[in-house]
Amino acid sequence: MSDEMARRVLEISEEVGALKYGEFTLSSGAKSTYYFDGRLVSLHPEGSYWLGRAFLRAIEGEEVTAVGGPAMAAIPIATAVALTSRIEGTPVHAFFVRSEAKGHGTGQQVEGGLQPGSRVLIIDDVCTSGGSLITAIEAVEAAGCSVARVMVVLDRHQGGGEELRRRGYDFRALLEPASDGSVRVAEQA
């Protein structure tokens, strides 16, 4: 994956107000010196473009046939990757995972173009504890697929990435916090 692509995602995050600095209380109750609203990036025309390119580049040579993750945040990113893959001539299907199976209709938890036996990229905008990513992984594996990689826009370094690696998943992020409380391009980006 290119540092240039991750750098552009960081710049767009700042430009559109998705990344804010100050004193914030997160949904977990934890305090943070920054706040990141990934949907402001993934639903922005240029943000969507760069996310699609960056995530697609991250799976080159991995024989990944589908990309998706937890509803709602993963939906626009997966769509951007699928569209970019079509334009670049390397089609990858998109899907999303509900927090639980529907209680009506077909009762599915996984929606979209996911076929049993697929190698997938699990994605999300932010990783904090990793809970929603783990739920998505479990649903995809229960559907007969294998996870090639797990990737997010921003890893908050609050245990989720470490837990995913501990479970044996290749976990990566475009952005991560720096020691001074700012957000930077992730070291492995």
Compact summary:
The protein is of the alpha/beta class and 189 residues long. It has helices at residues 3-15, 39-42, 45-57, 74-87, 131-142, 160-166, and strands at residues 19-25, 31-36, 66-70, 93-97, 110-112, 119-127, 146-155, 171-177, 183-185.
Please explain how this structure is put together:
With 189 residues, the chain is of the alpha/beta class. It contains 6 helices and 9 strands. Helix 1 packs antiparallel against helix 3 (45-57) and helix 3 (45-57) crosses helix 4. It is globular, with a radius of gyration of 16 Å. The model has no long low-confidence stretch (mean pLDDT 93).
Summarize this structure as a short list of keywords or feature phrases.
189 residues; alpha/beta; two-stranded antiparallel sheet; 29% strand
Order of helices and strands: HEEHHEHEEEHEHEE
Report helical residue fraction: 25-40%
Q: What would you call the structural class? A: alpha/beta
Q: For the report, how would you describe the main beta sheet?
A: 7 strands, mixed
Distance between the termini: 6 Å
Number of strands: 9
**Large-scale geometry:** globular
Count of individual helical segments: 6
| Spatial ordering of strands, largest sheet | 5-4-3-6-7-8-9
Strand residue percentage:
25-35%
Radius of gyration: 16 Å
Question: Mean pLDDT across all residues, rounded?
Answer: 93
Low confidence ranges:
none
SSE arrangement:
Elements: H1 3-15, E1 19-25, E2 31-36, H2 39-42, H3 45-57, E3 66-70, H4 74-87, E4 93-97, E5 110-112, E6 119-127, H5 131-142, E7 146-155, H6 160-166, E8 171-177, E9 183-185
Parallel strand pairs: 3-4, 3-6, 6-7, 7-8
Antiparallel strand pairs: 1-2, 4-5, 8-9
Helix pairs in contact: 1-3, 3-4
